[in-house]
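Researcher: Re-running this chain for the archive, since the previous output was lost when a drive failed. Same request as before.
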Amino acid sequence: MLIKATAYSKIKCIQFNRGDRMEIIKLSLAQLIKNRDFEGMKALVISKAPLILAVILIIVVGFLISDLAGKLVVKAMKLKGVDSSIHSFIKTIVKFIIKLFFILTALATLGVNVNSFIAALAAGGLTAGFGLSHSISQFASGLQILINHPFRSGDYIDIGSVAGTVREIKIMYTVLVTIENKKVIVPNSHITDSNIINFTAEENRRIDLLYSISYSDNIETAREAILSAAAECDKIYESPAPKAFVSEHSDSSIKLVAQVWCNSRNYWEVFFFMQEHVKLEFDKAGVTIPFNQVDVHFDTPDKPVM
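Model: Regenerated structure tokens:
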């Protein structure tokens, strides 16, 4: 091994000749810049050129891999049917993690101690986790909704405290619009902690309608009136065919239930149509709808009250 000493201004540089490999140690770039030692800086750059090229190559390859991974993740989510509103968000997270990994690898290649940086990052994340636990819970719930998609934009859902049509699904909250056109913003953690009834998840839906007739009315006449009303609505399916049958003998009336099938999107239109036209058909057929009545009896005393 040949050892050769070279002086650049006040900075000493020791070179080790190991075949084709040259290493320069104990050389401070800051000191070289401070002393304007251009020869020393040139020697340092030349000696570190392979390392610098390796670092650049690592970063370039890492960024290319992150772009490719982002595209593959989006493609996989599309194949799985994940809501499109989450594609960009997940893609950004995947690309950020991969880029961060390759940047840390590049810094480690340069000899930078990345362990302290990782430890500081972990400590900061832990502190933020305690301070933002509620927000993190909302975030996790949003991911769960977007990935598992128990409902989608345009679905009509009931989560117990509120029901409405889903307008937007965000990471932190979901926007519903009620049938009265009220905009309701619901935290995602509340949704995932509740029972979700999705009325439009299936393409078709059955509507159960309850009607009351008097004990003095003919059941067959009332049944025919209900089925006649159903036949007038073009939104009601012919198959399965509409049905009407007695469901209960109550105190003051006989209750008939009508079952009709329609597209889930036409539920309310069919519901209101039947409520109106069954009453019209009952009127034509002479079927009465009983209602609660109160009979008041007065007792007349034998002698007038003084």
